[in-house]
Amino acid sequence: MERAKCLEVIYPELKDKLVVTIMGACAQELYNLGHRENFFYLQHAMGLASSIGLGLAKHLPKEKIVVLDGDGSVLMNLGTLSTLARYRPKNMLHIIFDNGSLLSTGGFASHTTSGLTDLAMMARGAGIEHVATAVNPLQFGEAVLDAFERDDFSFIVAKVQAIGPDKFGMDLHLAENAFRFRRYIQEKKQQGLKE
Predict the structure, then answer these.
(1) Which of 131, 40, 41, 42 is nearest to 81 (CA)?
(2) Residue 146 and residue 132 in contact, taking contact as beta carbons nearer than 8 Å
(3) Sheet with strand 39-41: strands edge to edge
(4) Is 65 or 194 the better-scoring residue by pLDDT?
(5) What b/e sequence results for 30-65 when a residue is b if at least 16 CB atoms lie within 10 Å of its CB, and e otherwise?
(6) pLDDT tens digits for 4-21?
(7) Is the pLDDT of residue 180 over 60?
(8) 132-161: burial string, b at 16+ Cβ within 10 Å, e else
(9) 8-56 tens-digit pLDDT
């Protein structure tokens, strides 16, 4: 299963949600589908997408937050699993694209490559209740739809191939992206106050 194809499948569903991606291939592939102001590509901050997502979820309980993460990033910040289990943000979906590789930082094998480290099992062990693993596009689509319908925190591990985009490069720098993302949130909140 390819991460780019998974992103393509869920892209239409992301138009009204706040989306935080980890750096590298995941961010580039989402950007290649077409940037939206509700997308924040967390460049140069490996391991922190889930923390940013949790902060948004707690601060904006009426918004649905989607975090698009990678196995290397989650392994770099394993404490996030117990923190997510403790706070259990009902409005957050955490998707981990597990390609068994640190693809964006040199292509070295991650700890999930050998099959010894199982992120779904670790999430359950941390106390996360709704955990799914997807190994094909149908399972992935069903898991995401279930998560969007559920009024509770969901965690999905999507097993994908260790391939990335043909080229990297965004016309959107981190500071500008952060400013525009924040403005999008502020305008949405203002709109909600008027209604």
Answers:
(1) 131
(2) yes
(3) 39-41, 18-21, 65-70, 92-98, 154-159, 130-134
(4) 65
(5) bbeeeebebbbbbbeebbbbbbbbbebbeebeebbb
(6) 999 999 999 999 999 999
(7) yes
(8) bbbeeeebbeebbeebeeeeebbbbbbbbe
(9) 999 999 999 999 999 888 999 999 999 999 999 987 778 899 999 999 9
List domains and CATH numbers for the chain.
Answer: 3-194 (3.40.50.970)
Give the contacts of 58 (CB within 8 A, at least 6 positions apart): 87, 89
Instruction: Report yes or no: 110 and 102 within 8 Å, Cβ to Cβ.
Output: yes
Task: Please give the model's pTM, rounded to 2 decimal places.
Answer: 0.92
In this structure, what token pair is assigned to residue 103? 């693809």
108 backbone dihedrals φ, ψ, rounded to 5°: -70, 150
Residues 76 and 47: beta-carbon distance below 8 Å: yes
- Provide the CB-side half-sphere exposure for 184 (13 A, CA): 18
Closest CA to 9 of 154, 157, 142: 142
Which 3 state secondary structure label does DSSP give 70? strand
Encoding tokens for residue 8?
Answer: 């393509």
Distances (CA, A) of 34 to 12, 24, 31, 78, 171: 11, 16, 5, 31, 12
